[in-house]
């Protein structure tokens, strides 16, 4: 069933994330990258582009930028430079709607965290 504006996140998203939790290796991810794009990245970008006009009605001060890099969607790649845990990928999906004057992820805004066993929506600064 394709992603829709009423439910952009399908069960395949959670299945992929569960498998990634068990196989958090570059080789596995490369072999399953099309699943990542089809079940996580593309539905998330669809969600961001569709929620943008709705969010603007609530507050025109927040951005919904449907870009895989430099937009509202967080990258799946972890920053492992200073971590003992060297697993390369995040096992959740993160989306942030930042204030228009914000320059980084620490600014006020809304955040959506999607993960098997515990998803949440947050707001603040």
Strand fraction equals 5-15%
Order of helices and strands: HHHEEE
**Radius of gyration, in angstroms, nearest whole number:** 15 Å
Number of domains: 1
**What's the helical proportion of residues?**
25-40%
Name the overall outline: globular
| Poorly predicted parts | none
Q: Can you count the beta strands? A: 3
Summed over residues and divided by their number, the pLDDT gives a mean of 91
Biggest sheet strand order reads 1-2-3
Give the end-to-end Cα distance, rounded to a whole number of Å: 36 Å
Return the structural class. Answer: alpha+beta
- Sheet of most strands: 3 strands, antiparallel
Count helical runs: 3
Structure description:
- There is one protein chain.
- This protein has three helices and three strands, in the order αααβββ.
- The chain is an alpha+beta fold and 125 residues long.
- The protein has one domain.
- It has a three-stranded antiparallel β-sheet with strand order 1-2-3, with helices on one face.
- Strand 2 and strand 3 (120-124) form a beta hairpin.
- The termini are far apart.
């Amino acid at each position: 069933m394709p992603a829709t504006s009423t439910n952009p996140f399908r069960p395949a998203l959670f299945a992929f994330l569960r498998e990634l939790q068990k196989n958090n290796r570059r080789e596995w991810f490369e072999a399953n990258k099309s699943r990542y794009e089809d079940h996580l990245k593309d539905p998330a970008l669809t969600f961001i582009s569709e929620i943008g006009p709705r969010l603007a009605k609530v507050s025109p001060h927040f951005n919904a930028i449907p870009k895989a890099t430099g937009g509202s969607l967080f990258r799946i790649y972890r920053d492992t430079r200073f971590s003992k845990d060297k697993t390369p990928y995040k096992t959740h999906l993160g989306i942030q709607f930042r204030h228009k004057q914000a320059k980084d992820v620490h600014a006020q805004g809304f955040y959506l965290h999607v993960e098997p066993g515990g998803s949440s929506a947050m707001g603040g600064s």
